[in-house]
Write a structure and sequence with these properties.
alpha+beta; 41% helix; 21% strand
């Protein structure tokens, strides 16, 4: 099994991408992801991706073009930490969704 991109925003092309596999997510979640990704690229620049690893854990990734001197590396690190803190509930819910609906794991609801 490999990694799966949930969504991404690209400041160079000014585009947002939501993987069609996740169109079944509630509209409010899809909108929250879009707003989060687009605001990130507006603030910092580059390409921002929300990716599921092989185990179903979410990773926030950033890339930028080599000659992009406007890309804010320090701001990028700070923004990622802020998102991990402020969006932890969203990320945990998305991980549970992926594990159940995409990986087919059984979930013990007594936790």
């Amino acid at each position: 099994m490999s990694e799966t991109v949930l969504c991404a925003a690209n400041s160079y092309e000014r585009k947002f991408y939501l993987n069609p596999e996740f169109e079944s997510l509630p509209e409010s979640i899809r909108q929250e992801l879009q707003i989060m990704c687009v605001l990130y690229t507006e603030d910092v620049g580059g390409i921002f991706m929300v990716v599921y690893d092989e185990d179903g854990s979410l990773e926030l990734r950033v890339d930028h073009e080599e000659n992009d001197f406007a890309f804010d590396e320090i701001g990028s690190v700070l923004k990622i930490k802020e998102l991990q803190r402020t969006k932890s509930g969203l990320f945990e819910s998305l991980e549970l969704y992926y594990r159940v609906f995409c990986l087919g794991e059984e979930v013990d609801m007594d936790l």
